[in-house]
Please model this.
Amino acid sequence: MEQPEGFIVPGLERKVCKLRKSLYGLKQAPKQWYEKFDRSLLSNDLGEADVILGVKIRKTENGFSLCQSHYIEKILKKFGCHDEIPVRTPYDPSACLKKNKGDSVSQADYAKIIGSVMFLMNYTRPDIAYAVSRLSRYTHNPNKDHWDALRRLLRYLKGTMNLCLHFNKYPAVLEGFCDANWVTDNDEVSSTSGYVFTLGGGAISWKSAKQTCIARSTMESEFIALELAGQEAEWLRNLVGDVPLWGSSVPVSLHCDSQAAIGIAKNYAYNGKRDIYASDMVR
Model:
């Protein structure tokens, strides 16, 4: 290795250092880490996993469950919501949230809570995906209304902290469900897409996100969601195909509640609106 700046030996500037162990940042570092990690796993019997990356694993008679109740309790205590009264829904659809044009209210704490619940949502709680996606749009400059909606989410988590994802052997079909709403944002003309995929009885992939292009009708907003879910279905099918447990060919079923969007997707004839819309999505 070349002598690092600030540690060059006078008179030996052209000399190099001999490494006695692997150093972070070198091209050999990933290989060295993999070999050390591989030796450790082969030589140590770590037993059955109980917690992995903050997710509890509970075995049952016909499968297993993934839960983060301990993490939710930690969030509630950290942000002073442990004594709040639980509610039955994570988000109030009648709430009229708009971008704050005034001074922000505790922006740093708001961002911390959003980051905490986003970690939870990504791992085991697809039921809060829409609420987290919506509230995270106001992280830069939240006001009192945004804080009230965020506290409602924490109150919902308190009442549902024991919810978990349960998996068994059936059905061995990759099944997806997608949906969209059309222009419900008060500040922007963007719709929201959402999908969830299940395999082995439990959800394995989900998402709720604002659409990146403008839908001019409910059909187009549904078609955007269908296209987004289709991309995820293709990726998941390739991923599951590499797992020996499921085999090389896993059936895929994708559901959409819009007959117009389904008809457009199945129609291979030229359609000017669809082609223009597809080019907008590519851009």
The chain has a mean pLDDT of 86. The chain has eight helices and eight strands. Strands lie at 51-52, 55-60, 63-67, 165-167, 174-181, 192-199, 202-210, 252-256. The helical segments are 29-43, 69-78, 107-123, 129-135, 144-159, 218-241, 259-266, 272-282.
